[in-house]
Amino acid sequence: FQAKSENGKTIWDTEEVPEGSEFDDTWDPREQPEYQILFKQCVGTEDVFFGMSRKDPSTACCEDMVIKIKLPDTKYSDITLDIQDKVLDLRTPQKKLLLHLPYQVDSKNGKARFLSEEETLEVTLRVSRKFDYINFA
Question: Is the pTM of this model over 0.90?
Answer without folding.
Answer: no
